[in-house]
Specification:
The chain is mainly beta and about 230 residues long. The protein has a single domain, classed as Porin (Beta Barrel). Helices cover about 10% and strands about 60% of the residues. It contains two helices and ten strands. An eight-stranded antiparallel barrel has the order 1-3-4-5-6-8-9-10.
Length: about 230
C-alpha cells in the first residue's frame, strides 16, 4: 500500500527536477460502478450501477504545452447492485432477489494527457492504466432496509470473497479553466477492470463465482496549482 501511494510522489519529484514545474491539487467527485459478469452469471443476476464517492490528490507533469503525464492517489468506492432474474429457478442457491455491494479502494492511475489549447477554457483527453487496492467493503443480501449486512473479505485466502488488488485500463477527457492562480479541472473517465475480482472454484457457494470485473464511470472536479518553475 505504501509503495502504491509513493509512486505519484516520486513522479512529481522527478517532474520538478527534469521539467522544472508540476501541478498539484485536490479532486473530488462521484463514481457509478458495476461489475462485468460472465455469461453464466448474467443468466442469474443483472449488474446495475451503484453510486459512490471519490476524493484525493492529482499531479500533472507537463512535457510540453500539449502533452503531459498525470498521476493521482485517491479513495474511490466501487461495487454493484445485483437483481436476480425473474426466470431463475434455483432460489436455494441464489436466495436473494437483490444484493448491494460497495468496496473501498485506494486507486493510483498513471495517465498520458493531450491538451487542446484554449484560454481561459481548454479541453483534454487522457488514457493509461490504474492500480488499485481494496481494503474491504459491505454487502447487503436482500433489500437495503431489511437485508442481511455482511463484511466483504479481501485477500488470497480460501475464505476471502475477492482479491485485494485490481488493474484497470483508463480512458477519458475533460475541461480546464484558467483561474490565474491555477486551473479548475473537470474530469470524466471510464475504468475497465482487467483482473477477475475473485478466484473461480466449482464448490464456491457464493452467487458471483469471482468471475466479475470492475467497471466504473468517474466524474470529478479539482483545482491544480503550479509548483516549481
Amino acid at each position: 500500500m505504501k509503495k502504491l501511494i509513493l509512486l505519484p510522489l516520486l513522479l512529481m519529484m522527478a517532474g520538478v527536477s527534469v521539467f522544472g514545474q508540476v501541478f498539484i491539487g485536490p479532486k473530488a467527485g462521484v463514481t457509478f460502478s458495476n461489475y462485468g459478469l460472465s455469461s453464466d452469471d448474467k443468466d442469474v443476476y443483472n449488474s446495475n450501477l451503484n453510486l459512490g464517492f471519490l476524493g484525493g490528490v492529482t499531479f500533472e507533469i507537463p512535457f510540453s504545452s500539449r502533452f503531459g503525464m498525470q498521476a493521482e492517489v485517491y479513495f474511490s468506492q466501487k461495487g454493484a447492485i445485483f437483481r436476480r432474474n425473474e426466470n431463475e429457478s434455483n432460489t436455494t442457491r441464489y436466495p436473494f432477489k437483490c444484493v448491494h455491494e460497495k468496496l473501498n479502494y485506494v486507486e493510483v492511475p498513471i495517465l498520458f494527457r493531450y491538451r487542446f489549447q484554449g484560454r481561459p477554457l481548454g479541453g483534454f483527453i487522457s488514457t493509461g492504466g490504474a492500480l488499485a487496492r481494496t481494503f474491504g467493503g459491505k454487502r447487503i443480501e436482500g433489500s437495503k432496509e431489511k437485508g442481511t449486512k455482511r463484511t466483504i473479505e479481501v485477500g488470497s485466502g480460501a475464505n476471502d470473497d475477492y482479491k485485494a488488488t485490481d488493474i484497470g485500463f483508463v480512458i477519458g477527457g475533460g475541461l480546464s479553466y484558467e483561474l490565474g492562480f491555477g486551473e479548475l479541472i473537470f474530469d470524466a473517465r471510464y475504468i475497465l477492470g482487467l483482473v477477475k475480482m475473485g478466484e473461480v472454484t466449482n464448490d464456491n457457494p457464493d452467487y458471483l463465482y469471482g468471475n466479475g470485473t470492475n467497471r466504473s464511470i468517474q466524474l470529478s472536479l479539482g483545482i491544480i496549482f503550479p509548483i516549481g518553475g
